[in-house]
Amino acid sequence: MPVHVLNQTKSLKAIHSVIRHRDTSHSLFVFQANRLIRLILEKCFELLPYRPYEVRTPIGELYEGQQFSKPLCAVSVVRAGESMEYALSSILAGFPIGKILIQRNKVTKLPHLYYAAFPEDIADRYVLLLEPMLATGGSAIMAVRELLERGVPEHNIIFANVLTSPEGLARLESTYPNLTIVTSSVEKRLNEEAFMVPGIGDFGDRYFGTTRQGAAHGQA
Q1: Exposure string over 184-200, b if 16+ CB within 10 A, otherwise e
Q2: What are the residue numbers of the active site?
Q3: Helix/strand/coil for 105
Q4: Whole-angstrom Cα distance, residue 206 to residue 202?
Q5: What CATH code would you report for 3-208?
Q6: Which residue range or ranges hold the Phosphoribosyltransferase domain (predicted)?
Q7: What are the beta bridge partners of residue 111?
Q8: I need a labelling partner for 113 at 20 to 30 A (CA). Which of 12, 55, 76, 211 fits?
Q9: CA distance 115 to 107
């Protein structure tokens, strides 16, 4: 499975230092998270296939440019994945966004699909799957399976991710070897409670400014 981790520059680590800090304010977290997500999405765009596209400039000359070789859409995993939609719309406009809701059963800890809505022609598009956290990998595997059942080729899916665990990455790779993943960090490990270390907390709650009882870490 192609895995692309953003270059661990000083600038990137500075962003991580802000969004990982437990005392970072909500407004600052959102600002820096949006900045980080844009970097992740720009990397995704670099990996998509392009084709030549000529345009005429205002002075009448031709410019030999590029455009996506087929239409693009996004699918966000509700709710944390919706945090990535703002950054996406600030980079690229005029594309559909699908939704998929997957939650873990509190008893079995297994993911369960509650809702899915996709563009009718999703099988003919490249798909950016938006999910900030990849811990155990259960939700991501179910989300990809839903896309495959709708006719999307595995190699046409790019999983855009903020943090991933080695365990989740290995599980995703063994299940979908032709999937592409772009992430800003591969964490050290999962702890005994399946929380990523060093982690970031519940990304969705921190981004949207909400709290949920018993959801201090919020892994998926």
Answers
A1: bbbbeebeeebbbeebb
A2: 104, 108, 202, 205
A3: coil
A4: 6
A5: 3.40.50.2020
A6: 8-210
A7: 104
A8: 211
A9: 20
Using the CB atoms, write b or e for 1-11: b if 16+ within 10 Å: bebeebeeeee
Please name the residue that has the structure tokens 């790779």.
173
pLDDT at 217: 43
Mean pLDDT, 10 residues at a time, over the chain (220 residues)?
96 98 97 98 97 98 97 96 95 93 77 93 98 94 97 98 97 97 97 91 94 52
**Can you give the pLDDT at residue 220?**
57
Cβ 192 vs Cβ 161: under 8 Å: no
- Sorted by sequence, the CB contacts under 8 Å of residue 68 that are 6+ apart come out as 48, 49, 50, 51, 126
Paired residues of 126 in beta bridges:
72
What is the token pair recorded at 113?
Answer: 């699909």
Q: Amino acid identity of 200?
A: I
Chain CA centroid to CA 171, Å:
17
What whole-number distance in Å separates Cα of residue 189 and Cα of residue 213?
Answer: 24
Angle subtended at Cα 107 by Cα 105 and Cα 112, rounded to the nearest 5 degrees: 15
Counting every residue written for the chain, the total comes to 220
3-state secondary structure of 112: strand
φ, ψ for residue 198 (rounded to 5)? Answer: -80, -20
C-alpha–C-alpha distance, residues 35 and 28, integer Å: 11
Distance, in Å, from the CA atom of 102 to the CA atom of 10, rounded to the nearest integer, reads: 35
